[in-house]
Design goal:
Blueprint lengths: L10 H10 L5 H19 L3 H8 L1 H17 L4 H5 L1
Helix pairs in contact: 2-3, 2-4
C-alpha cells in the first residue's frame, strides 16, 4: 500500500541522496571507530581538548551512516514514484 505524500524532495536533497547512496554504509562505521581510536590515543598523549573534539565526531559519523542506509532503502523519491 503506497502512502500518499503531498510533497516531494527538492533538487538539492535528491542530488545529495543520489551521491550518498553510492557510498558503502560501513565507511561511516569505520570512520566512527577511527575517531574513537584517535581520541583515545590523543587522550593517552595528554591532549585532552583535541581528544574530546575528535571523539565527538563518532556520533555524527554513525548518524550519517543511518541516513545513508535509509536513503539506500527508501530514498526521497520512493513516494514520488509510488503514486
Amino acid at each position: 500500500m503506497a502512502i500518499k505524500n503531498d510533497h516531494s524532495e527538492g533538487p538539492v536533497a535528491k542530488a545529495i541522496e543520489q551521491q550518498t547512496a553510492k557510498l558503502p554504509s560501513d565507511i561511516f562505521l569505520w570512520a566512527a571507530l577511527a575517531s574513537m581510536a584517535t581520541s583515545a590515543t590523543l587522550k593517552i598523549m595528554g591532549k585532552d581538548k583535541t581528544a574530546l573534539f575528535i571523539g565527538q565526531w563518532a556520533p555524527s559519523f554513525l548518524l550519517l551512516g543511518v541516513y545513508n542506509k535509509i536513503v539506500k532503502v527508501e530514498g526521497s523519491d520512493a513516494y514520488d514514484n509510488a503514486g
